[in-house]
Design a protein that fits this description.
The protein has 362 residues and is an alpha/beta fold. Helix content is 29%, strand content 25%. It is built from twelve helices and 14 strands. It has helices at 12-23, 44-47, 61-65, 81-89, 109-118, 135-141, 164-170, 177-180, 185-203, 310-315, 318-336, 356-359; strands at residues 3-8, 27-33, 57-58, 71-74, 93-96, 121-124, 145-157, 213-221, 237-248, 251-261, 267-269, 287-295, 298-302, 340-341. A seven-stranded parallel beta sheet has the order 3-2-1-4-5-6-14, with helices on both faces. It has a seven-stranded mixed beta sheet with strand order 11-8-9-10-7-12-13. Helix 1 (12-23) packs across helix 11 (318-336) and helix 4 packs parallel to helix 5 (109-118).
């Protein structure tokens, strides 16, 4: 038995997800939604650089919902709640990296009604948030007693992220510090990271303050830095750190942070920045980190999710690939789950699958 899957959008995550669906022994790609007219009607194989697959991309939502699919891998740039509800009402499960990791403090009434109407399941996943920030810390937290702090942190060269409009016009790299302080990223990403913090706090039974903390630190170029959005001029933003924290009596106990740099050469913090912050990758290089402070402490470093070069990252970024695969690997488990919003706490252990040439031996 295989589950019939529709891929919703073909950006970086969407293309990687299609590859994962094609190689997964329990999944069959039956449809693909695209946003742009230029992709409408094209064979999906062409969109991902493979031979024709016999599945045409389309902008026709009605046609896709009529395919009797089991699940949608939903990965447009921004989620459309009405669209999400429509898919669920049609009886099709959704796995997505766009929220709902642990929607404790957001209004889910419409989505819950849609799940009930279609007897469908919604699962939010990803990597940060959606894995590094809550799933992996919780996995190793059981190895410690008396936990006092949980930290999940990313250190990445943002020059490898192949979305120049996002990097330049949303993240506001290359702008002045005054301009970059208006970046929407602290609020946009905070919606997901605050869900992660709530999941960790509830799972380890740590009652945190209702009010959480969010901070934004910056560093600027001291010499021109080449980047995919053009040269970063001296005095303009070349590195940013966004941090979200759960507190107990005003003291941080759960921390999620991203450190995004245009490399780590020729940059210096803006005046007034936290003096304890480092603006270099150091000997560890690009990485994700998870730390549990308790008895004993646990420290994990995740490598392999960053490309070896800027050029490689712009062609195929491993960070995007792991985000997509966390979605794809969850699909069989979500299809077997009961209706409603299901988090990692509701599902069994999600595992990947062996390569086809190994899985098909004998």
């Amino acid at each position: 038995m295989t589950y019939k899957v529709i891929q919703w959008a073909t950006g970086g995550v969407g293309r990687a997800a299609i590859e994962g669906i094609l190689d997964h022994p329990e999944l069959t790609l039956v449809g693909c939604w695209v946003h742009s007219e230029s992709k409408d009607g094209k064979d999906v194989g062409e969109l991902i650089g493979r031979e024709p697959l016999g599945v045409k991309a389309t902008r026709d939502v009605d046609a896709l919902l009529a395919l009797d699919a089991d699940c949608v891998c939903y990965s447009p740039i921004v989620s459309n709640p009405k669209e999400v509800c429509r898919i669920l009402e049609a009886g099709i499960d959704i796995v997505t990296p766009l929220g709902w990791v642990y929607p404790k403090r957001i209004d889910t009434e419409a989505v819950e009604k849609a799940c009930a109407a279609g007897n469908a399941t919604l699962h939010g996943t990803g990597i940060h948030p959606g894995g590094i920030t809550e799933r992996f810390p919780l996995m190793v937290s059981g190895l410690s007693r008396a936990i006092t702090h949980v930290r999940a942190e990313e250190f990445s060269d943002i020059r490898t992220y192949g979305a120049p409009e996002v990097v330049g016009e949303m993240m506001l790299f290359g702008k002045t510090p005054e301009e970059a302080r208006s970046s929407p990223m602290l609020k946009l990403l905070g919606g997901g990271f605050f869900q992660s913090i709530d999941m960790v706090a509830d799972a380890i039974q740590m009652p945190i303050d209702d009010q959480k903390r969010a901070t934004h630190e910056m560093a600027v170029a001291t010499a021109p830095i080449d980047s995919p959005i053009g040269p970063i001029q001296p005095g303009h933003v070349a590195a940013q750190r966004f941090c979200w924290q759960g507190l107990v009596d005003g003291e941080p106990v759960i921390t999620a942070a991203v450190n995004w740099f245009m490399g780590d050469q020729n940059i210096e913090p803006v005046p007034g920045s936290d003096p304890d912050l480092s603006w270099t990758f150091g000997d560890k290089g690009e990485r994700f980190e998870v730390s549990i402070t308790g008895d004993p402490d646990t420290h994990l470093t995740f490598k392999g999710w960053h490309p070896a070069s800027i050029e490689e990252g712009l062609e195929r970024n491993n960070g995007i690939l792991v985000t997509a695969m966390h979605c794809v690997s969850a699909i069989p488990y979500v299809c077997e789950a009961e209706a409603g919003i299901k988090t990692y706490l509701d599902l069994p252990l999600i595992a990947g699958r062996a390569a086809p040439h190994l899985a098909n031996r004998g």
